[in-house]
Design a protein that fits this description.
alpha+beta; Aldehyde Ferredoxin Oxidoreductase,  A, domain 1; Aldehyde Ferredoxin Oxidoreductase Protein, subunit A, domain 3; 6-stranded mixed beta sheet; 17 strands; 13% strand
């Protein structure tokens, strides 16, 4: 078992809450950090060690973990918090990651992690400060939006600087795709973490801290920080993201080839969106960029990627807030809505009601296609005309989904249960990976698709994207639509880098997504060594990333029996080709996909035939205890 002698970087305590008993206590973070460092790795270990595989996501015994990364509060871009639990979509590992100021505030209050079990008899929220933590009555907050909740809590606590992570009406009603919203605009949306929080009658966490983070080697730390800041400022996308946001960097030009690589149209019927529709969305004079007033930054971030927009004319005049992302564009193409004002309105409404954008777009696109095919009619939709491009219908659907009203109650059940209830062959049109809705491309960018498919949580690109993979191969090779070979290597290395970014809590916008010359593993090692007083090499930190990934893999195996079959693309993308555009005729070749899986599993050190973990790999990683759990369950390849 590998361990580290840590001398700094930690707030020092893990906060434990049993909502059923109303009990609060603490333990030392070092107990876990000396083996797992921090962030998602510690969360994953706690879930694997303490949860019975028979536990369902909705059971009080399900554990909801919040973990600030090891470099949160000290490193540039160190603002990220991992939220991990049992997934509402598949009973496997559920995970989301969020920025803002909450994670740093948590550490300044003296806590690295918050671990929640049980279910409160009545709605409560958790108030955390330097003086400790207490559960407070949240009955007056129940039913409020996330925006209202933040303001009411700040007023009650008498401090506008209190940071709040809360659920909205969607989480209260256990909509599967509910998000936890931080700072009103940052969504921890994956795996239905907001739904789990709602099932526990936990409305919010509120935190205010005045402490600091101990640094083991101050002089080395300052050198590492200066070097990191300079690398970020010299990176390819630094200025571009500040000026145009990431969506603008790649998609401001309607003729950009990126449009044909990464967008799914009309629920996967095609992968090519017409040029005039692209222009309507992103033209600087008439599209979404015209409403951007400024960009904002999360805690200690030198980039500032968050667009603050305000619509100052027309039917949505007065709509204002943070958020117009690449995912917003992906949602627009999924629903064939070339209307930037409507998409901005819908996206901000999702934040307010506590909905995950990808889930909402995916389930809405399923409903739109079922309507097109006659599987759903205006009788079931209560007069709502779900024709492609109907932006007003989509906005109404967002509200119905959050409040489980009418057709929204069906969509709230997700892409497995909703088609089962509706029947009529509607399951074919429910596009998901491992039970989680996916609005990601599969047929053209083979590496991106492999990353999304093999992600432990399913269907999300942040865990599998290959935007930074030019570090590991020729520029552009990872997006070559003709190539299957070498994609597993790009996905493997990119995945390990993301594991490391999530255990240290550094944002991808100062790392892998800012170009080949931004922060990388060697920089994270230098920062960790100076802050924590370690002597980690780059190779040792990469090994730590592998260990983190194997914790999640073991959880999925033990709790859901996930294996190789769960890493295949959705049926539609293997059976139906792209219908128009430069990649007309492209689809996922199953035989070549199977070859990619072989190579990917071999890189991971997993069994190629089954996708299961091997005793050899786990022993090499110092994870004998994890191997023993798998052996007892008959799920270890010896």
């Amino acid at each position: 078992m590998s361990s580290f002698h840590i001398k700094g970087g930690l707030a020092g305590k893990i906060l434990r809450i049993d909502l059923s008993k109303g009990r609060i206590w603490t333990e030392e973070t070092l107990r876990y950090a000396e083996r797992w460092i921090g962030g998602r790795a510690i969360n994953s270990y706690i879930l694997l060690s303490e949860m019975d595989p028979k536990t369902r996501w909705s059971d009080p015994e399900n554990i909801l973990t919040f973990g600030a990364g090891a470099l949160v509060g000290s490193a540039p871009g160190g603002c990220r918090m991992s939220i991990d639990t049992k997934s509402v979509f598949n009973q496997g590992k559920g995970s989301a990651n969020v920025g803002g100021h909450f994670a740093a505030e948590l550490k300044y209050a003296g806590y690295d992690h918050v671990i929640v079990t049980g279910r409160a008899e009545k709605p409560v929220y958790l108030s955390i400060s330097d003086k400790g933590a207490e559960l407070r009555d949240a009955r007056g907050l129940w039913g409020k939006t996330t925006f209202e909740t933040e303001g009411l809590i700040q007023n009650e606590l008498g401090d506008k600087k209190v940071r709040v992570a809360c659920i909205g009406p969607a989480g209260e009603r256990r909509v599967l795709g509910s998000a936890i919203i931080v700072d009103r605009a940052k969504a921890a949306g994956g795996s239905g973490v907001g739904c789990v929080m709602g099932s526990k009658n936990l409305k919010a966490l509120a935190v205010r801290g005045h402490g600091s983070i101990p640094v083991a080697r101050p002089e080395a730390y300052l050198r590492a920080v200066d070097g990191a800041l300079q690398k970020v400022k010299d990176s390819r996308n630094y200025k571009k993201i500040q000026q145009e946001t990431l969506a603008g960097v790649y998609y401001a030009d309607e003729k950009s080839p990126s449009w044909d690589l990464l967008f799914v149209v009309r629920n996967g019927q095609d992968d090519h969106w017409e040029t005039d529709k692209r222009k309507k969305m992103m033209n600087k004079m008439s599209g979404a960029p015209r409403y951007r007033k400024k960009v904002l930054a999360c805690f200690h971030c030198p980039v500032g990627c968050m667009p603050f927009s305000e619509i100052d004319e027309g039917r949505y005049k007065g709509t204002r807030g943070e958020g117009f992302w690449v995912n917003t564009l992906m949602s627009a193409t999924m629903l064939d809505i070339p209307d930037p004002e409507a998409m901005l309105k819908a996206w901000l409404l999702m934040n307010e009601l506590g909905l995950d954008g990808d889930f909402t777009a995916g389930m809405s696109a399923w409903a739109f296609e079922c309507f097109e095919k006659g599987i759903l009619t205006e009788k079931e939709t209560e007069g709502l005309n779900l024709e492609w491009g109907n932006s007003e219908a989509f906005i109404q659907l967002v509200r119905k989904l959050a409040y489980r009203e009418g057709i929204g109650d069906l969509l709230a059940e997700g892409p497995v249960e909703a088609p089962r209830k509706l029947g009529k062959g509607s399951d074919y049109f429910a596009i998901h990976m491992k039970g989680q809705p996916s609005i990601e491309p599969f047929r053209i960018p083979k590496g991106w698709a492999l990353g999304v498919a093999t992600s432990p949580v399913g269907g999300r690109h942040l865990r599998g994207s290959i935007l930074g993979s030019s570090r590991f191969g020729p520029k552009g090779a990872c997006f070559d639509p003709h190539v299957y070979k070498d994609q597993p290597r790009y996905v493997y290395w990119q995945g390990l880098t993301k594991e490391i970014e999530d255990l240290v809590g550094i944002c991808i916008y100062v790392g892998t997504w800012s170009g080949a010359h931004a922060l990388e593993v060697s920089d994270y090692a230098a920062l960790l060594n100076s802050v924590m007083g370690l002597e980690l090499t780059e190779e040792e930190l990469m090994s730590m990333g592998r260990r983190s990934r194997n914790l999640e893999k073991a959880f999925n195996t033990l709790h859901t029996n996930m294996a190789r079959l769960d890493d295949l693309p959705p049926r539609r993308y293997m059976e139906e080709p792209v219908k128009s555009g430069p990649y007309k005729g492209y689809r996922c070749d199953k035989d070549k996909w199977e070859e990619m899986l072989d190579d990917f599993y071999e890189l991971q050190g997993w069994d190629k035939a089954t996708g299961l973990q091997t005793q050899k790999t786990l022993e090499e990683l110092g994870m004998d205890d994890v191997a023993e759990k798998l052996r007892k369950a008959g799920k270890l390849i010896e």
